[in-house]
TrEMBL record:
Family the UniProt entry places it in: Belongs to the metallo-dependent hydrolases superfamily. ATZ/TRZ family.
Residue ranges of domain Amidohydrolase-related in the record: 60-432
Organism name: Hoeflea phototrophica (strain DSM 17068 / NCIMB 14078 / DFL-43)
Enzyme Commission number(s) of this protein: 3.5.99.3
Keyword Hydrolase: yes
Protein name: Cytosine deaminase
């Protein structure tokens, strides 16, 4: 069986039960999809064939990052001055952005997925959850099929959140008719995708979650049927919660969003919500008690500007937290590495206003790795240890950028930030990015194809 021996790593972040710990000047042996051994002086040549030795002098080796919330399709709608949050109210922005989304075609969804996943991989992300809720009628139903195609091309470990919107704008949603589905349409396609792609086995590269877009844009029955399907098939549930919609939900249903979702059964260890910046401590306590997780997306906070998500309270109360990039409509990059730094710095900015202390910098790295794995129901990723998936990235720290920082690899991502692509990204034991190139792929062609697909849409 083939594999790699990463020889003489400067530092490797290994999991030892109590959490991640830095090990200095050791080797890391990968065989097939898994980490087999870690320690000084490893030598695989006597016991197996097909093991390539990789010189890792100066490298810090980390478990791969786990992105728990994104909207890949929005990479085709970014860096747009006319859609700047600072010039529009939220309602004005939604009214302007959704018609733009509705013009995308099937090829756009494929190439925007390649674009987002490429950037994620370059910056150390090895598992990505995408919340694909945009299904224009003209684009058909095979959008997520094309996303799985893109993930296979790049070697990305991919979790697809099949989203959807069912409530018409005439009844209070923000969704144009072109993007609406019936509950039956939505549930039927969720079931099709689960049957076609979901793999719950160890080291699975493909999984599917039932992910109605958000309660304000869906009928109650959509969430009820989502719970029934997800529990029947044993898959996760995901939606947007706590991003300013709670007063709307309360006016419609007599309760805020967290209680509404819990009443419908859309809560528990098999559910996680995106954002949650407006939630009260009481609501967070309920989520901690029932096991519902949170995908914290720090960078949209800069644009929305309403509140900085209370991560210290979530940590203190025991809420499961992972990190997400979110879509390019509210974060114009797909760089989860940068989000680790943003998450920490935002909490420092408002520390004096919080009841609980800001978690240690290393905690934000943990949220981006094993925390994200927990949200996705995975015990085989998010950590480096023998028997775990060989998902990792490496940074050669023998650069001026890292002078004075190398004593604390665990805090590096959060406190200092890493502003360049990795030197190596490995997913499931396969090197997918190394020395500035995607393995076996022509980035210039990927770029040209994506630009060509983008040019077919008039915005």
């Amino acid at each position: 069986m083939s594999g790699y021996l990463l020889k003489n790593c400067e530092a490797v972040i290994l999991e030892e039960g109590a959490g991640p710990k830095v090990h200095r000047n050791i080797d890391l042996l990968i065989v097939g999809p898994a980490v087999v051994a870690a320690g000084a002086g490893l030598d695989a040549t006597h016991s197996m064939d097909g093991i390539a030795t990789v010189k890792a002098d100066g490298w810090f080796v980390y478990p791969g990052l786990v992105n728990t919330h994104h909207h890949f399709f929005q990479t085709f709608v970014r860096n747009r001055a006319d859609l700047d949050w600072t010039k529009l109210s939220v309602i004005e922005w939604l009214d302007r952005i959704y018609p733009v989304f509705s013009r995308l075609n099937e090829d756009c969804f494929y190439h925007s997925s390649v674009t987002a996943m490429s950037e994620l991989i370059k910056h150390g992300c090895t598992t990505a959850f995408d919340h694909q809720y945009c299904f224009p009628r003209h684009a058909g139903k095979r959008i997520i099929d094309r996303q799985f195609e893109a993930a296979e091309l790049l070697g990305m470990r991919f979790h697809a959140g099949r989203g959807g919107n069912t409530l018409p704008k005439s009844e209070g949603s923000t969704i144009p008719d072109e993007m609406l589905e019936t509950t039956d349409e939505f549930i039927a396609d969720c079931a099709r995708l689960i049957d076609s792609y979901h793999d719950g086995s160890q080291f699975s590269m493909r999984q599917v979650a039932v992910a109605p877009c958000q309660p304000v844009n869906c009928y109650r029955e959509t969430f009820v049927e989502s719970v029934a399907l997800a529990r029947d098939r044993g898959v996760l549930m995901h939606t947007h919660v706590g991003e300013g919609e709670s007063p709307v939900i309360e006016a419609r249903h007599g309760m805020r969003t967290v209680d509404y979702c819990a009443e419908l059964g859309f809560a528990g260890p098999d559910a996680f919500y995106a954002h949650c910046w407006e939630l009260t401590h009481d609501e967070l306590s309920k989520m901690a008690a029932d096991g519902t997780g949170v995908s914290h997306c720090p960078e949209p906070v800069y644009l929305v500007g309403a509140e900085v998500t209370d991560i210290p309270a979530m940590s203190a109360l025991g809420v499961r937290v992972g990190l997400g990039c979110d879509g390019a409509a509210s974060n114009d990059n797909s760089n989860l590495m940068h989000c680790v730094h943003s998450a920490y710095m935002l909490q420092c900015l408002v520390a004096s206003t919080r009841e609980h202390q800001v978690p240690e910098p290393a905690e934000f790295f943990r949220q981006a790795t094993s925390g994200g794995a927990s949200l996705l129901g995975r015990s085989d990723i998010g950590r480096l240890a023998p028997g775990m998936a060989a998902d990792l990235f490496a940074i050669d720290t023998r650069r001026m950028d890292y002078v004075g920082t190398r004593h604390d690899p665990l805090s590096l991502l959060a406190k200092v930030g890493i502003g360049m692509p990795t030197d190596l990204t490995m997913i499931n034991g396969r090197i997918v990015w190394s020395k500035g190139e995607f393995t076996g792929l022509d980035e210039a062609k990927l770029f040209a194809d994506a630009e060509a697909a983008l040019s077919t849409v008039e915005f």
